From TrEMBL:
This is ABC transporter permease. The chain crosses the membrane at residues 20-43, 64-84, 104-124, 154-175, 182-203, 230-255. It comes from the Bacteria. The keyword Isomerase does not apply. Keywords: Membrane, Transmembrane, Transmembrane helix.
Length: 263
């Protein structure tokens, strides 16, 4: 299993366009947007928005996992990892050498590793941006706060965001396997992100948590950061767990039963 996992990572490293545009572009775009916003404020008002608690700001930056545009780029990268084997007809060469379950798990773990790295880039970029603009302000580094108590919050937000992206990976990989199509998986994932808003309009106030991945993750974030009702946090965790387990099982079973004579 470890050898398959390393092999999948090596495949990704040999495809820098997928790594950059699929996994690195979303956090880098968020960093550049924040830097541009800070720069505009500095040029117009002669001051910066920098300052405050560094760790809390980094924790908030991890909410990129719920951004619909970021999810679209992530979905393209995740689907490419699985669809490449159908496109190049290499499954038939890989299946005789390893168990199907191990192949599926190695690809999914490789995607989760890259998604986790994207979140780390987002948090690190937020820290660097805050420090850079604090240096340009009148208060300097003294305007920044580093509260060690924010480390559990940062770790918790990282886990929640990674779980939200794991749901995306499970859904996209399952659709890619079933449809043998990257476009079908990417469009479905994007519609899922957009459809969450429509579902929220109809079900808001009727349920403790809207049963969509974004709102499940948001409920967990609210519970973690502001001490919201523990029941709401538990419901959010349940929503994410269902959305993670069901597509993962569907994708796993479909791949186990799939005919791969010519793929």
């Amino acid at each position: 299993m470890s050898a398959l996992y390393r092999a999948e990572l090596l495949k990704l490293f040999r495809q820098p366009s997928i790594l950059f545009w699929g996994f690195l572009a979303p956090p880098l775009a968020a960093i550049l947007f924040k830097a541009a916003l800070e720069g505009m404020v500095f040029l117009r008002a002669g001051r910066t928005l920098g300052g405050g608690d560094l760790l809390q700001s980094a924790a908030r930056s991890l909410a990129i996992s719920g951004n619909s545009v970021a999810q679209l780029l992530f979905a393209i990268a995740i689907s490419t990892v699985f669809f490449a084997e159908y496109r190049h007809a290499t499954w038939r060469l890989m299946v005789p050498r390893a168990a199907r379950g191990a192949l599926w798990a190695a690809k999914l773990l490789a995607c989760l590793t890259c998604l986790g790295a994207s979140l780390i880039v987002a948090a690190a970029g937020d820290l660097a941006t805050n420090i850079l603009f604090a240096l340009t302000g009148a208060g300097g580094l003294a305007s920044l706060i580093v509260d060690p108590g924010g480390l559990p919050l940062l770790a918790g937000q990282f886990c929640i965001s990674l779980a939200e992206l794991a749901v995306l990976a499970a859904v996209v990989s399952a659709i890619t396997i079933i449809a043998r199509s990257m476009i079908a998986a990417v469009i479905s994932a994007f519609l899922l992100a957009l459809g969450a808003t429509a579902v929220q309009v109809y079900l808001a106030g009727k349920l403790p948590v809207v049963p969509m991945p974004y709102y499940g993750a948001q409920a967990l974030r609210n519970w973690l950061s502001s001490g919201a009702d523990a029941v709401i946090g538990a419901n959010g965790l349940l929503v994410l767990a269902v959305w993670l387990v069901v597509p993962a099982v569907v994708g796993y079973v479909a791949f186990q039963r799939q005919q791969l004579a010519v793929e």
